[in-house]
Design brief:
heterodimer; A: alpha+beta; 2 domains; six-stranded antiparallel β-barrel; 36% helix; B: 170 residues; mainly alpha
């Protein structure tokens, strides 16, 4: 038996090396939950990414502080060192002020939306592959309870939905991802449709799709979630219509949308873990 | 040597996302795993190379947000099999041959990505972007591959000297 294994070890290993990933993909495509291996790998790589993100965050402030001090004269070494320290402190303080502003806005948003149960999370990574538009989050509270499909928002509007989750780390598919579809409406005109991500690799973009040509749609019309998809609660801002002109693609009329959230600048988000009327919406 | 290479690739894969975003060149990241699989197969037997590529594929799968787990692992394992066709026919001492083989592998990787997305990821429908990114990705990967090859040779050389010629199985 052992000699057979020895003789065919390359073939046996090759077989398993092909079959295991295929099985992982197969079960992943059938089951919306995350496997133990998936959670383990997300936890491992999430921890490393979190560490790297923290290092980059710190180093960014120090480097910019150092660059500003390049022209100080040699005989002022002591002052230079002091300045260097102070400048990096100022840079850090500025970052803290900005962070405080962002967190304050998020807190106000959380207070305004009392019907939504939310958990704060920090963005620790953005995908750089040309195929997906996804962000990785670190859940500061560590409360857990984050599940696939949960909506992610900021005070500016909708960010996307959770596609992979563990207790500490989660991945959120952004509205601009080609796989993203959200039921939306223009409340002022009662026009309902679907917001679909364009999946472009050089910018974040999405289209508002309608089955019938939307009469009276104008640039600047605000688009909000309609709640019909049972994922996003009704009334969250998504963006505005970018132009009056529509483009026909198959049976749909497409309008370009200016998304409310600038995904390049997002650093903190809120994950909606539940909302009033969620069960009623699910039972519709 | 394999352990050192694995750690190097792991760190580069972890660093490439924040680094390329910082440099604002994140559209088509070069695929370091393709160069690593060519390099490791030149310097190791098939079985340790397979294990190395499999593990690195899993790492890439976990770091690539949004992709189904197993997608990149499968692609790199299949590329290693493809590599068996070239390994004894191509002279990898020349940078040009490394560039050309990397270009072919990167193109095949994109086509396999398309195939597996079609079969296993029903939510992914933007296939146009795969073909849009195919050529730039292959060009960037192939042009960067001699640099990665040089880096791996340097790390391999240093590590082998330190270990006194002994090998560690990954």
């Amino acid at each position: 038996m052992y000699s057979i294994f020895q003789r065919y070890k390359n073939q046996i290993a090759s077989f398993f090396a092909v079959v295991i990933p295929l099985s992982l993909m197969y079960f992943n495509s059938r089951d919306s939950g995350n496997s133990f291996l998936e959670k383990g790998m997300l936890y491992l790589t999430g921890s490393v990414q979190h560490l790297i993100f923290s290092v980059f965050d710190e180093a960014g402030g120090l480097v910019s502080g150092y660059v500003d001090l390049l022209n100080v004269e040699k005989d002022n070494e002591r002052l230079k060192r002091e300045n260097e320290i102070l400048l990096s402190e100022v840079v850090k303080a500025r970052k803290v002020i900005l962070e405080n502003k962002r967190l304050q806005s998020l807190c106000e948003f959380k207070k305004e939306k009392k019907e939504l149960a939310m958990q704060a999370a920090r963005v620790i990574g953005k995908d750089i592959s040309p195929y997906y538009t996804v962000m990785r989050l670190y859940l500061e509270s560590g409360e857990g309870g984050i599940k696939n499909g949960m909506p992610v928002v900021t005070n500016d509007g909708v960010v996307g939905r959770i596609v992979r989750a563990t207790a500490d780390y989660s991945e959120v598919m952004l509205l601009a991802d080609s796989r993203s579809q959200v039921n939306v409406e223009i409340p002022a005109k009662g026009i309902k449709g679907v917001l679909k991500g364009k999946g472009l690799n050089n910018r974040y973009a999405a289209n508002f799709l309608l089955v019938e040509k939307g009469e009276g749609i104008q640039a600047g019309d605000m688009i909000i979630t309609s709640g019909y998809d049972r994922v996003f609660p009704r009334g969250l801002e998504v963006g505005t219509v970018a132009g009056d002109h529509s483009k026909q693609a198959g049976i749909y009329f497409e309008y370009e949308v200016d998304l409310a959230v600038n995904f390049s600048l997002v650093e903190e988000v809120l994950v909606i873990t539940g909302y009033q009327g969620e069960e009623e919406a699910a039972g519709k | 040597m394999r352990t050192a290479l694995f750690i190097t690739c792991f760190l580069i894969l972890c660093l490439e996302s924040p680094l390329l975003l910082e440099l604002r060149t994140s559209l088509y990241p070069p695929d370091i795993v393709i160069t690593a699989l060519i390099f490791i197969r030149i310097h190791s037997a098939f079985l340790p190379s397979l294990l190395f590529v499999f593990m690195l594929g899993l790492v890439k799968d976990s770091l690539t947000m949004g992709s189904p787990l197993g997608l990149y692992t499968e692609i790199y394992v299949l590329l290693l099999f493809l590599n068996e066709l070239f390994i004894h026919r191509v002279n990898f001492n020349s940078s040009l041959s490394i560039v050309m083989v990397s270009f072919v592998y990167s193109t095949v990787a994109s086509l396999l990505f398309f195939l597996f997305s079609l079969i296993f990821d029903s939510s992914f429908s933007n296939y146009g972007i795969i073909f849009d990114a195919l050529l730039p990705s292959a060009l960037l990967t192939s042009l960067c591959s001699p640099l990665f090859f040089y880096l791996f040779t340097w790390i391999g050389g240093r590590f082998r000297r330190r270990m006194g010629g002994r090998e560690i199985i990954v």
